[in-house]
């Protein structure tokens, strides 16, 4: 994740903004001073001017109040109930027609002799409504006192004249509209009346309320009649069941039996059939079944049965009929007659109930439809009333407009005309000065944040931690250096780094390096560190200074330390320690000199191996077997070895040398390294599989760190030795 993404999700912190202002205070002060100076120049260049004031009171049209007619025309009513009609009139007074009439009346001109433009005139004219009143105040500033008063009075007169003309024009326009609308309104009344009449005729409406009352009563009566008829029907059904039980026939059988017993054709055939059947029974006792007499009688019986079936079919239809039911007794015939009458009574009652139910349903349906009819009727009546109201209103408005057309009373009254001012009104110069200062502060803050946004460098310890995401082993503050000349040595592009206790005071840098060496000591609990490579992302981050002072701190703690200047491109350790660079690491690697001849002691427990002559291929030399052998000798003779190597950007020296050591110590200097270089170094270290022990943040400006960030690490309680005393002993030994 890039630093831009981290910034976008970072919680807003007021301290972060304060840090930006602290870093960019010069930009803030510069912009503030420039803006303040411009404000002062403008304030003192202004000329005094005269101001004239006049006032108007906005009123409703008084003509209608006197005549007793409604005050609709000329009345200042806003379209929105939350609007103030006074604001509308303020806009009208400042409108182009009023201003243009004033300019033409007074023949106002600009300094070059041209006609004064409405835009410039409006800027010099002030029109405002006084809150809580109906008063509008008009003010004008000019270098001419008399002209200032004339302008205000002419604006008032122009507004009043245009107001009267506008009212009259409005009345004429309204009359034309009303005269066009009256015939339409009259036609709407006739149409509404016709629609209401047709509606009543189609739905047979006379009085809906009375009809609803009658419908309710009728439904109640029909319901009572239905209940009575159902009670009678139940009685008839009960009596019918008793009669059926006595006659052992159902209603249909009883009716059929009664009809058959009273049918002559059926009874005659039945009698002849019974007689023939009797003869057949007698003859069968006398003759054999095949006898001609028996056969003749059987044939006659069959013919009579067929004829009887046809006759009964004519009377009973398809209903089944037994021969026993063709003749009934007198008692049974009486029962069947009662059954027939009861059945007829039942059928009549059922039909009566059906008719009553149909009538009741019809009334209920009509009653349910009445509300809708009433709703439609009321809608038509409302339309008629609305049309009639519109028509009557238009007729009344026509009379009112005739009166308004002749009125010449404005909607405003002059409270006071403008008087010629006696004294000029000087501009408030202090306000322009204050305004220039305020704008300067605002623009200065914007400039500070803009510069900080454009600046791509890592600015604080927090940003360094976020971009690299390595353990912070030490934070080295920056101090003002007055002990030595800061000008670089000829041939160098940067000043020579300083040694604590010798070139600069011990506190607080000594404490910071004590923390660094203690953190390195306890970094690996299983195997103590013995050798490290000190490098940085880009040049001028102070890696050589950190290497030298870390070596001093470790030597001061009693450890035998070797500081190796492995920067075979831009070596500087010999300048720091004021040593000769004629022989050094490169000479040892090519076998020109021995290690003992090249190493030089600079203080007790600290020896320095300069770079030596600059080789054409430093990487090949550092990656040689000779260097690996030499590293074994270093580990045998010294407690700790520190390699000062070139920066990581575009150079592989540090990566090659780190394979022979316990890891890399990366130096980061806020304000020098940018985010892209830091990310590139991070990516290089990750892809090459280097072991990074942590980072040392060098040259930290205490003022730029919130809440004393550099002291967030607990300082170990160590007794520091006097480095200056050690250096004095070394000088005497030399």
Describe this structure in words.
By secondary structure, this protein is α/β, with parallel strands linked by helices. Helices cover 58% and strands 10% of the residues. It contains 25 helices and twelve strands. It has helices at residues 3-9, 14-23, 25-45, 62-67, 85-93, 96-106, 118-124, 145-202, 208-247, 251-261, 264-284, 292-316, 330-404, 429-454, 461-468, 509-521, 543-556, 573-576, 585-589, 595-598, 618-622, 625-637, 653-658, 675-687, 723-733; strands at residues 50-58, 125-129, 135-142, 412-416, 472-477, 531-536, 561-565, 600-603, 606-609, 640-644, 664-668, 692-700. The chain has an eight-stranded mixed sheet, with helices on both faces. It has a four-stranded antiparallel sheet with strand order 2-3-1-4. It is flat and about 175 Å long.
Identify the notable features of this structure and list them briefly:
Rossmann fold; flat; Alpha-Beta Plaits; eight-stranded mixed β-sheet; 3 domains; 734 residues; four-stranded antiparallel β-sheet
């Amino acid at each position: 994740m890039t630093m831009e993404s981290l910034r976008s999700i970072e919680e807003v912190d007021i301290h972060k903004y304060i840090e930006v202002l602290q870093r960019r205070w010069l930009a803030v002060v510069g912009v503030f001073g420039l803006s303040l100076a411009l404000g002062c120049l403008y304030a003192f260049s202004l000329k005094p001017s005269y101001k004239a004031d006049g006032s108007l009171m906005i009123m409703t049209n008084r003509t209608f109040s006197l005549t007793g007619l409604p005050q609709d025309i000329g009345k200042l009513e806003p379209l929105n109930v939350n609007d103030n009609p006074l604001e509308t009139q303020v806009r009208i007074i400042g409108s182009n027609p009023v201003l243009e009439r004033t300019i033409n009346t007074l023949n106002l001109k600009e300094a070059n002799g041209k006609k004064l433009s409405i835009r410039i005139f409006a800027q010099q004219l002030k029109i405002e409504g006084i809150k809580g009143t109906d008063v509008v105040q008009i003010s004008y500033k000019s270098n001419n006192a008399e002209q200032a008063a004339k302008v205000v009075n002419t604006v008032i007169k122009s507004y009043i004249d245009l107001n009267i003309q506008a009212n009259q024009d409005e009345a004429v326009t309204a009359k034309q509209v009303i005269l066009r609308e009256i015939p339409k309104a009259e036609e709407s009344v006739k149409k509404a009346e016709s629609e209401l009449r047709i509606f009543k005729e189609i739905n047979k409406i006379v009085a809906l309320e009375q009809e609803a009352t009658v419908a309710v009563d009728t439904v109640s009566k029909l319901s009572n009649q239905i209940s009575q008829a159902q009670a009678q029907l139940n009685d008839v059904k009960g009596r019918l069941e008793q009669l059926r039980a006595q006659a052992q026939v159902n209603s249909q059988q009883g009716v059929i039996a009664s009809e058959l017993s009273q049918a002559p054709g059926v009874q005659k055939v039945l009698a002849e059939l019974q007689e023939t059947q009797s003869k057949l029974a007698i003859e069968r006792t006398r003759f054999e079944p095949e006898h001609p007499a028996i056969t003749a009688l059987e044939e006659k019986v069959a013919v009579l049965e067929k004829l009887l079936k046809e006759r009964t079919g004519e009377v009973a239809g398809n209903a089944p009929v037994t021969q026993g039911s063709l003749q009934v007794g007198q008692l049974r015939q009486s029962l069947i007659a009662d059954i027939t009458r009861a059945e007829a009574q039942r059928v009549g009652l059922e039909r009566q109930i059906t008719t009553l139910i149909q009538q009741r349903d019809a009334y209920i349906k009509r009653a349910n439809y009445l509300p809708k009819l009433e709703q439609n009727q009321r809608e038509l009546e409302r339309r008629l009333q609305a049309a009639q109201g519109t028509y009557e209103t238009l007729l009344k408005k026509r009379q009112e407009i005739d009166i308004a057309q002749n009125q010449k009373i404005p909607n405003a009254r002059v409270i006071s005309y403008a008087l010629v001012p006696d004294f000029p009104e000087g501009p408030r110069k202090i306000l322009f000065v204050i305004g220039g200062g305020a704008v300067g502060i605002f623009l200065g803050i914007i400039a500070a944040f803009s510069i900080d946004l454009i600046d791509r460098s890592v600015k604080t310890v927090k940003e360094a931690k976020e971009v690299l995401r390595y353990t912070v082993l030490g934070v080295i503050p920056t101090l003002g250096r007055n002990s030595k000349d800061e000008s670089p040595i000829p041939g160098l592009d940067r000043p020579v780094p300083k040694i604590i206790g010798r070139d600069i005071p011990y506190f607080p840098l000594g404490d910071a390096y004590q923390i660094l060496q203690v953190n390195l000591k306890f970094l690996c609990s299983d195997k103590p560190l013995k050798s490290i490579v000190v490098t940085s992302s880009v040049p001028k981050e102070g890696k050589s200074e950190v290497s030298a002072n870390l070596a001093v701190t470790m030597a001061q703690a009693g450890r035998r330390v070797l500081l190796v200047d492995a920067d075979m491109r831009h070596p500087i350790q010999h300048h720091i320690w004021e040593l000769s660079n004629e022989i050094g690491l490169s000479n040892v690697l090519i076998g020109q000199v021995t290690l003992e001849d090249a190493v030089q002691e600079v203080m007790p427990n600290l020896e320095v191996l300069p770079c030596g002559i600059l080789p054409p291929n430093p990487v090949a030399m550092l990656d040689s077997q000779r260097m690996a052998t030499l590293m074994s000798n270093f580990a045998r003779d010294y407690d700790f070895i520190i390699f000062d190597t070139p920066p990581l950007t575009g150079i592989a020296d540090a990566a090659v040398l780190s394979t022979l050591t316990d890891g890399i110590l990366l130096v980061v200097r806020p304000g020098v390294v940018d985010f892209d270089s830091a990310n590139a170094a991070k990516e290089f270290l990750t892809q090459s599989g280097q072991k990074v022990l942590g980072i040392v943040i060098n040259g930290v400006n205490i003022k730029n760190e919130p809440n004393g960030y550099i002291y967030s690490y607990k300082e170990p309680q160590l007794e520091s030795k006097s480095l200056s005393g050690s250096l004095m002993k070394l000088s005497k030994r030399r």
